[in-house]
Fold Transglycosylase associated protein.
Amino acid sequence: MSLGFFGWIIIGGLAGWIASKIKGTDEQQGLFLNIVVGVIGGQIGGWLLKAVGVDVAGGGVFFSFLTCLLGAVILLTIVNKLRN
């Protein structure tokens, strides 16, 4: 099952928002940045999971969300380290 453009926006936005809550950056980000963080996080998470041998292609919506969340938390951690 392939996620369309709007599917990635919704999943990315939700994952970015939850990641910003986890990392304590929610007050600094708006809806647009949450979506950007979630979508870029999905790319990072997918790349990392592929690197360790996990098949990310057929994971479904929930697995895609978890992948985006993982990558978004990693992305926000890196951004926070660079800011400090």
Remarks:
- DSSP finds three helices and no strands in the chain.
- The CA atoms of residues 1 and 61 lie 8 Å apart.
- The chain has a mean pLDDT of 87.
- The first helix runs from residue 5 to 23.
